[in-house]
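forwarding from the other thread:

> can someone predict this with L-homoserine?

sure thing
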Amino acid sequence: MIGRASAPASSANLGPGFDVLALALELRCVVNATVADDWFVTEPGRDRVPRDDELVVRAARAVTDSPLNIEIDSAVPIGRGLGSSAALTTATVAAAARAIGDELELADLFARVSGLEGHADNAAAAVYGGLVASADGRPVRLRVHPSLSIVVGVPEAKLSTGTARSVLPESVSVEGLVGAVARTVAFVAGMRDGDPSVLRLARGEDIHEVARASLSPVTGRLIEAAIDAGAHHAAWSGAGPSALAVVDETAVEAVCDAMTEVLDGEGEVLTPEIAADGVV
Ligand code: HSE
């Protein structure tokens, strides 16, 4: 039996919501899994017998000890802050379960994927879709106004989440915390109502984005260029180096042009739909 599943890319943090908020994007990782005698992974340009410690094997083993033949077809850029590992883990866990005739409840899938990821934000978006907050291990689904579109600037250079987390501050000031809470509330309300004046209050981030700035200077330049070109909000996408902008349909072209100019041929600009569905 072939177990097939797909899960979307995602942009975590969205500025103020560090390790809490994420938005699912319609760039999918598709996984087909079949019970086999030995492990084998088929992926464009990387067919291989996988190592035991590879993410895809660890994800499959979260549901079965049986070796699997796994085919991966992913449109999610890797190492760019777009939740490629959460999309791969989610699709693999769901596909492996289906390969052995099992269908996991979403809550169960979410618990397994966030355990493998180590933080729940991208996992929640990959499993549930849309805009979602993770609160104490539970997903809280949030509304997005239909007038809002997304533009993502994706630099060519990769940045690993491990490196980006290694520079995080050990503690934050009360002032920093108050700012993050206020901006998070403004972001969630602005996304719900599509209100530019409220979304504007969510701009800026002085905890993780400041700490990470020197790891990818182009990310800050993408954010500034997007805001100058008319975006309502722009932020590091997850651990970077991509930057995500929230825009009205009328500003999509100007924001794309501005980000393209910043990237100067070293990267690409994407305009993914928000993925209403998570894993399917
Ligand atoms: N919230 C995480 C971080 C997302 O910023 O480190 C990366 O996967």
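The chain has a mean pLDDT of 97. thats all i got for now
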